[in-house]
Amino acid sequence: MKSPSENECGKQLYQELLVIRAKRGDKEAFDEIIRIFERPLFYFVRRLVESDEDAWDVLQEIWVKAFRGLGSLRETKRFRIWLYAIAHCTVMSHHRAAYRGQAVLEEAFGSETAVEADAPSNPEDAERVHLALAQLDPGFRAVLTLRFLEQLSVEETAEIIGMPS
Asked: I need a labelling partner for 99 at 20 to 30 A (CA). Which of 12, 18, 57, 149 fits?
Protein backbone atom coordinates (compact mmCIF):
# COMPACT_ATOMS: atom_id res chain seq x y z
CA MET A 1 0.00 0.00 0.00
CA LYS A 2 1.32 3.43 -0.95
CA SER A 3 1.69 6.16 1.63
CA PRO A 4 -0.23 9.42 1.12
CA SER A 5 2.99 11.23 0.18
CA GLU A 6 3.76 8.61 -2.48
CA ASN A 7 0.24 8.99 -3.91
CA GLU A 8 0.60 12.79 -3.93
CA CYS A 9 4.03 12.57 -5.57
CA GLY A 10 2.66 10.21 -8.23
CA LYS A 11 -0.29 12.53 -8.84
CA GLN A 12 2.04 15.53 -9.25
CA LEU A 13 4.30 13.60 -11.60
CA TYR A 14 1.31 12.50 -13.70
CA GLN A 15 0.06 16.10 -13.90
CA GLU A 16 3.52 17.34 -14.83
CA LEU A 17 3.74 14.78 -17.65
CA LEU A 18 0.31 15.88 -18.89
CA VAL A 19 1.51 19.48 -18.97
CA ILE A 20 4.61 18.50 -20.95
CA ARG A 21 2.46 16.59 -23.43
CA ALA A 22 -0.01 19.49 -23.70
CA LYS A 23 2.85 21.93 -24.31
CA ARG A 24 3.86 19.73 -27.24
CA GLY A 25 0.37 20.06 -28.73
CA ASP A 26 -1.29 16.90 -27.37
CA LYS A 27 -4.98 17.87 -27.25
CA GLU A 28 -5.92 14.78 -25.24
CA ALA A 29 -3.42 15.75 -22.55
CA PHE A 30 -4.94 19.24 -22.30
CA ASP A 31 -8.42 17.71 -22.13
CA GLU A 32 -7.22 15.54 -19.23
CA ILE A 33 -5.79 18.62 -17.50
CA ILE A 34 -9.20 20.25 -17.80
CA ARG A 35 -10.87 17.15 -16.32
CA ILE A 36 -8.45 17.19 -13.37
CA PHE A 37 -8.60 20.91 -12.60
CA GLU A 38 -12.08 21.98 -13.72
CA ARG A 39 -13.89 21.10 -10.50
CA PRO A 40 -11.43 22.68 -8.02
CA LEU A 41 -10.95 25.69 -10.31
CA PHE A 42 -14.72 26.16 -10.64
CA TYR A 43 -15.00 25.91 -6.85
CA PHE A 44 -12.35 28.63 -6.45
CA VAL A 45 -13.91 30.92 -9.07
CA ARG A 46 -17.44 30.38 -7.78
CA ARG A 47 -16.42 31.62 -4.34
CA LEU A 48 -15.31 34.89 -5.95
CA VAL A 49 -18.11 35.71 -8.41
CA GLU A 50 -21.82 36.37 -8.07
CA SER A 51 -23.38 33.41 -9.87
CA ASP A 52 -22.77 29.99 -11.39
CA GLU A 53 -23.23 31.55 -14.82
CA ASP A 54 -20.49 34.10 -14.14
CA ALA A 55 -18.25 31.35 -12.78
CA TRP A 56 -18.66 29.25 -15.93
CA ASP A 57 -17.96 32.30 -18.13
CA VAL A 58 -14.83 33.15 -16.16
CA LEU A 59 -13.73 29.51 -16.15
CA GLN A 60 -14.02 29.34 -19.92
CA GLU A 61 -11.88 32.47 -20.21
CA ILE A 62 -9.31 30.91 -17.85
CA TRP A 63 -9.02 27.78 -20.01
CA VAL A 64 -8.58 29.86 -23.16
CA LYS A 65 -5.81 31.88 -21.50
CA ALA A 66 -4.18 28.71 -20.16
CA PHE A 67 -4.30 27.04 -23.57
CA ARG A 68 -2.82 30.08 -25.30
CA GLY A 69 -0.17 30.68 -22.65
CA LEU A 70 0.89 27.09 -21.99
CA GLY A 71 3.90 27.42 -24.28
CA SER A 72 5.30 30.19 -22.10
CA LEU A 73 5.19 28.07 -18.91
CA ARG A 74 8.81 27.29 -18.10
CA GLU A 75 8.48 25.10 -15.00
CA THR A 76 5.88 22.40 -15.57
CA LYS A 77 5.87 21.46 -11.89
CA ARG A 78 4.47 24.94 -11.15
CA PHE A 79 1.47 24.47 -13.46
CA ARG A 80 -1.09 24.51 -10.63
CA ILE A 81 0.20 27.82 -9.26
CA TRP A 82 0.41 29.26 -12.79
CA LEU A 83 -3.20 28.16 -13.49
CA TYR A 84 -4.53 29.63 -10.25
CA ALA A 85 -2.67 32.88 -10.96
CA ILE A 86 -4.45 33.05 -14.32
CA ALA A 87 -7.73 32.34 -12.53
CA HIS A 88 -7.11 35.06 -9.95
CA CYS A 89 -6.25 37.65 -12.61
CA THR A 90 -9.26 36.67 -14.71
CA VAL A 91 -11.64 36.94 -11.74
CA MET A 92 -10.21 40.34 -10.83
CA SER A 93 -10.68 41.50 -14.45
CA HIS A 94 -14.26 40.24 -14.28
CA HIS A 95 -14.84 42.31 -11.12
CA ARG A 96 -13.27 45.42 -12.65
CA ALA A 97 -15.55 45.09 -15.68
CA ALA A 98 -18.60 44.53 -13.46
CA TYR A 99 -17.63 47.49 -11.27
CA ARG A 100 -17.27 49.75 -14.31
CA GLY A 101 -20.67 48.57 -15.54
CA GLN A 102 -22.25 49.15 -12.14
CA ALA A 103 -20.71 52.63 -11.90
CA VAL A 104 -22.23 53.53 -15.26
CA LEU A 105 -25.66 52.25 -14.16
CA GLU A 106 -25.48 54.10 -10.84
CA GLU A 107 -24.50 57.30 -12.60
CA ALA A 108 -27.40 56.91 -15.02
CA PHE A 109 -30.10 55.71 -12.61
CA GLY A 110 -28.93 56.55 -9.10
CA SER A 111 -27.81 54.22 -6.35
CA GLU A 112 -30.04 52.03 -4.22
CA THR A 113 -28.46 50.11 -1.39
CA ALA A 114 -29.77 46.62 -0.74
CA VAL A 115 -30.15 45.66 2.90
CA GLU A 116 -29.23 42.06 3.65
CA ALA A 117 -30.17 40.10 6.76
CA ASP A 118 -27.31 39.20 9.08
CA ALA A 119 -26.11 35.66 8.43
CA PRO A 120 -26.06 33.35 11.45
CA SER A 121 -22.56 32.87 12.83
CA ASN A 122 -21.94 29.13 12.81
CA PRO A 123 -18.60 28.68 10.99
CA GLU A 124 -19.00 24.90 10.84
CA ASP A 125 -21.84 25.24 8.39
CA ALA A 126 -20.27 25.39 4.91
CA GLU A 127 -23.15 27.36 3.43
CA ARG A 128 -22.79 30.05 6.07
CA VAL A 129 -19.04 30.19 5.54
CA HIS A 130 -19.62 30.74 1.84
CA LEU A 131 -22.22 33.41 2.56
CA ALA A 132 -19.70 35.16 4.79
CA LEU A 133 -17.03 34.86 2.11
CA ALA A 134 -19.42 36.39 -0.42
CA GLN A 135 -19.65 39.53 1.72
CA LEU A 136 -15.89 40.12 1.61
CA ASP A 137 -13.99 42.20 -0.91
CA PRO A 138 -12.99 39.91 -3.83
CA GLY A 139 -9.28 40.29 -3.02
CA PHE A 140 -9.72 39.08 0.56
CA ARG A 141 -12.10 36.36 -0.61
CA ALA A 142 -9.46 35.11 -3.07
CA VAL A 143 -6.79 34.90 -0.37
CA LEU A 144 -9.01 32.99 2.07
CA THR A 145 -10.30 30.66 -0.63
CA LEU A 146 -6.83 29.83 -1.94
CA ARG A 147 -5.31 29.36 1.50
CA PHE A 148 -8.04 27.51 3.36
CA LEU A 149 -10.39 26.01 0.79
CA GLU A 150 -7.85 25.18 -1.93
CA GLN A 151 -5.24 24.36 0.75
CA LEU A 152 -2.38 26.21 -0.93
CA SER A 153 0.58 27.34 1.14
CA VAL A 154 1.04 30.96 2.16
CA GLU A 155 3.87 31.27 -0.36
CA GLU A 156 1.78 29.77 -3.19
CA THR A 157 -1.18 32.00 -2.30
CA ALA A 158 1.03 35.10 -2.25
CA GLU A 159 2.55 34.19 -5.60
CA ILE A 160 -0.88 33.64 -7.20
CA ILE A 161 -2.24 37.00 -6.08
CA GLY A 162 1.02 38.78 -6.86
CA MET A 163 2.03 39.75 -3.33
CA PRO A 164 5.34 39.10 -1.53
CA SER A 165 5.03 36.32 1.07
From this structure: 149
How many Å apart are CA 33 and CA 26, to the nearest integer?
11
SS3 of 79-107: HHHHHHHHHHHHHHHHHHHHHHHHHHHHH
Distance CA 161, CA 112 (A): 32
The one-letter code for the residue type at 60 is Q
pTM of the model: 0.64
d(CA 62, CA 57): 9
Query: Could you say which of 3.40.50.1820, 1.10.1740.10, 3.40.1010.20, 1.25.40.10 is the CATH number of the domain covering 4-161?
Result: 1.10.1740.10
